[in-house]
Amino acid sequence: MQPIPPHLTPSRYPKRAAYDRDTINAILDEALVCTISFTLDNKPFAIPTGFVRHEDKIYIHGSVGSHFIREIEKGLPICISVTLIDAIVVAKSAFNHSVNYRSVILFGTPEKIEDVPQKIEAFRWLTEKFVPNSWDYLRPIRENEVRKTTVLAFSLDEASAKVRTGMTGDDEDKDLPVWSGIIPLETRRLAPVTEDLSEGIPLPPHLL
Amino acid sequence: MQPIPPHLTPSRYPKRAAYDRDTINAILDEALVCTISFTLDNKPFAIPTGFVRHEDKIYIHGSVGSHFIREIEKGLPICISVTLIDAIVVAKSAFNHSVNYRSVILFGTPEKIEDVPQKIEAFRWLTEKFVPNSWDYLRPIRENEVRKTTVLAFSLDEASAKVRTGMTGDDEDKDLPVWSGIIPLETRRLAPVTEDLSEGIPLPPHLL
Questions:
Q1: Any CB–CB contact under 8 A between A133 and chain B?
Q2: Most-buried pick from A17, A41, B99, B143 (CB within 10 A)?
Q3: Is B109's Cβ below 8 Å from some Cβ in A?
Q4: Which domains does chain A have, with CATH numbers?
């Protein structure tokens, strides 16, 4: 394993850090949205956007007219942050409260994908992350739609994860008759809601 | 209403932007975690952290030993991003897929809260955001815990929201026999799980 560069080493709870690709990939594949941070005129900006991981890269897309996309595609250094919250950790004191979370931070510069078949592949990965197995069912993508959309890729080379799991570790207060434990949080997909335009069209098998 | 500064005006879908405090507050009060972005040595950083809004400010806290807290408390310009995802918008084409979301972006510089009673108030707001009505039940906070924790406040003066709701607006493909609509997403709290240290201690009323 390569040495971990200092900007990937957390100053707090370094034991929570993880650099193995399986841990990082699992977080990236579950989260739908990341936050892209960059600096313009010495001012920090942070923009949420959908993304997909494929092999060793993260892909985002946006309109060719998007200010944010046009700025970062010049090759600005970026930091991408992804966070999943799994539970509220309720201790016997306010001080020891915490959150169980899984997060990834990634540093890099964007690589603009210009090759049309490769762009279309990225659209398929993105679409099927949000709606698995749906690509072949949809109206096929058009050349002008590909042209109107920028795709940027970011290498996972400088990615790291940070994970907290488990209970409070509230040992100093263990004899107090105050309840402690966790409140798990769950994000789930509810039943699809048909819009008026699609009244009478059956749900496709991949959405049942 | 004051004129909207250019960095708060989205380049895409300006109709989705909202600047009224009620819209902004509702998003900030529902989200548990924000992403704090800042620039160090021309490199962008993005760190997720819990936060609470109280009146016209956002409050975050962290260990006095945290590298990130020690850097930004010097008065670095920051950008805070908060995102809630409400639904996946499934169109008849991949191109028109979208996400219903509510997001807030805020620019500012941190104000360090030094006053001890004011710091304790901020801890109470933070704690009761995550676990409502729990403060008086917990082991009281200690002076050294207050001393070991930095509290930073950020004004909402330069905050803006961006919201997408509704269906696809898939008019160009409306005659295609392809299903479209939304898949709502829901994040919920599950039943509290008691840890070993608290075996036999009844759940307090605010957690029932």
A1: no
A2: B99
A3: no
A4: 6-184+191-207 (2.30.110.10)
CA distance A135 to A141: 10
- Residue B195 C-alpha, separation from nearest chain A C-alpha, in angstroms: 5
> Which chain B residues are closer than 8 Å to A39 by Cβ?
39, 42-44
| Average pLDDT value for residue range A108-119 | 98
Is there a contact between A130 and B176 (Cβ–Cβ < 8 Å)? Answer: no
Report pLDDT for A13. 72
pLDDT (tens digit, 9 = 90+) per residue, A119-173? 999 999 999 999 999 999 999 999 999 999 999 999 999 999 999 999 998 889 9
Q: Which helix (H) or strand (E) holds A106?
A: strand A98-108
What DSSP line would sit under B107-123, residue for residue?
EE--EEE--HHHHHHHH
Mean pLDDT of chain B: 94
Whole-angstrom distance, CA of residue A189 vs CA of residue B98: 15
What pLDDT sits at residue B11? 67
Give the per-residue SS3 of A43-77: EEEEEEEECEEECCEEEEEEECCCHHHHHHCCCCC
CA B110 to chain centre: 16
Q: How confident is the model at residue A1 (pLDDT cuts 50, 70, 90)?
A: very low
Task: Compute how many other C-beta atoms are within 10 angstroms of the C-beta atom of residue A99.
Answer: 19
What's the token pair of residue B182? 């939304």
The number of residues in chain B equals 208
Task: Calculate the alpha carbon distances from B137 to A154, A167, A180, B89, B140 in Å.
Answer: 47, 19, 11, 43, 8
E-assigned strand segments in chain B: 17-18, 33-40, 43-50, 52-54, 57-63, 78-90, 98-108, 111-113, 149-155, 159-164, 181-189, 193-194
d(CA A49, CA B10): 14
At residue A152, φ and ψ (nearest 5 deg) are: -120, 140
**Which residues, other chains included, contact A95 with Cβ-Cβ below 8 Å and sequence gap of 6+?**
B123, B141, B142, B145, B149
